Amino acid sequence: MNNVNTGELLNFQDYSPEHNDRTARIEVEAVHTNQYNNMSTPNYGFEEPKNVEEPQAVPQKNHNFWTIEYYQKYFDVHTNEVVERIISSVLPQKVSRNYFDERIKGKPDLYGPIWISDTLIFTIAVSGNIANYLQSANKVVHWRYDFHLVSYAATAIFCYVWLVPLALWAALKWTTLPDGQDEIETQQSTSPTMMSLFCLYGYSLSIYIPVAILWTIQVSWLQWLFVLMAAFVSGAVLIFWLMPALRKSKYFFILVGSILAFHFLLATGFMLYFFHVPDTDVPIKVSITTS
Amino acid sequence: MTTFDSKYDMFPAGDVGVVEGEMNIPSQGGPSGESMEFNTLDEPIKETFMRDLRAVGNKFFHVLIPKEKTSLLKEWDLWGPLLLCTLMATILQGSTERADNSNDGGPEFAEVFVLVWIGAAVVTANSKLLGGNISFFQSVCVLGYCLFPIALALIICRVILFMTQNSFLFFLRLVISMVGFIWATFAATKFLGDSQPEGKKALAVYPICLFYFILSWLVVSHSNV
What we know:
The complex is a heterodimer of chains A (291) and B (225). With 291 residues, chain A is an all-alpha fold. Chain A has 15 helices and no strands. Chain A folds into two domains: 2-60, no CATH class; 92-290, no CATH class. Chain A has helices spanning 2-11, 17-33, 40-45, 48-57, 68-72, 79-90, 99-104, 111-135, 149-175, 183-188, 194-204, 208-214, 220-247, 252-275, 282-290. In chain A, α9 (149-175) runs antiparallel to α14. Chain A starts with a helix and ends with a helix. Classes of the chains: A mainly alpha (291), B mainly alpha (225). Chain A: The chain crosses the membrane at residues 110-130, 150-172, 193-215, 221-244, 251-275. Chain A: One of its GO terms (cellular component) is Golgi membrane. Chain A: Residues 99-267 form the Yip1 domain.
């Protein structure tokens, strides 16, 4: 079988036999000398990570912090998993009750948080520009788009996605009461890892993406309704998933309150800064911000 | 024939694969007799330049008609992306004469430049992290070359901007940059889609869509005359 194949391989180039002999010899040398043939270099280049990756999937090998394989374990998700996690951040009743404990905590991913926040940044920048255009549509001023909304949105979102989970993780770590009432339960739901909090927070922003598009509708009470709805839904889902860990903390109410407050603050900030016309409906604004 | 066969048998299995792979390359470039005396030292500079230019032009052509999957991946270069990126950044930059105007919002030259290169690097890093088997610069090369439809859309929009603006012309610009976006995404997906494992393809394609969408947004929003 093998002999037949190699014979075919030698003949398939359609060279005359003595020519064939000569080219083959040259090409073997060319592997070592000819720099122009960069086909051989990439081949060696991307054979290697593949070999390293295979054992990594099974026994969770420890890679160096600076290698790409170290981070590959945070991107080891499939399309349906990502979709399921997005759904779980909006409609927790669609997935099983301890979805967070079973799935996200064991295998937090960074794909979702990174790309959801990127999408949100550019959605806000684009629809903020559309909102700005709609506001100045009936004015004489020549409207120009503002590219720099991207930088403001990026700063706000990245601060939120990285700093708030960090603070929450620290708070949970140092305020958890060592309760000895139920040994099994404490082992089951220890305080969540930092990565799973990043993951959870990143996915919880996904509801703001459709809301950011809807914020372009220039009706003030509708905009505030969207703020309330989005912040309430994703904040409630956050609390829902974190409830077992939060309950063990000394400052249960302070933590719950600050999680919700930060969520409302983020939504209100987005809406007021990027989408809102400042001079209308003052009474509604006051009543919301005090609540 | 006989001499080759005896030599062939002496090679271990690994070397056979290399010989087989290398034999394909010269038949791509031209007749294999030429590549034997391939030497760039004493050829006129015009030939060297034209050969590289022809390679770049060939790749642009493959982006416009993306049917052969491996043509862009074989030999990457960054000349085409550099040209496209510089062109787009030059056209897209905000006008300086209205710098005191509060609402002069176009990006700076450097911002577009950085957006394109960092964007391509991030999208590539994403596909590497997802476990795709493609080298870093090959992917950056493909992403850069696939900017070509968007750059074309930008040039057409620039020409349209010379006319007196009305809502029909805005609609026309919107349609043109949408076509550019779809074309670029389609081409990049065609070239890069196969490098991902099954079940992660959508995860790798989505950032590419986002990247080209942002650049198309810049194209359609650009209205500095």
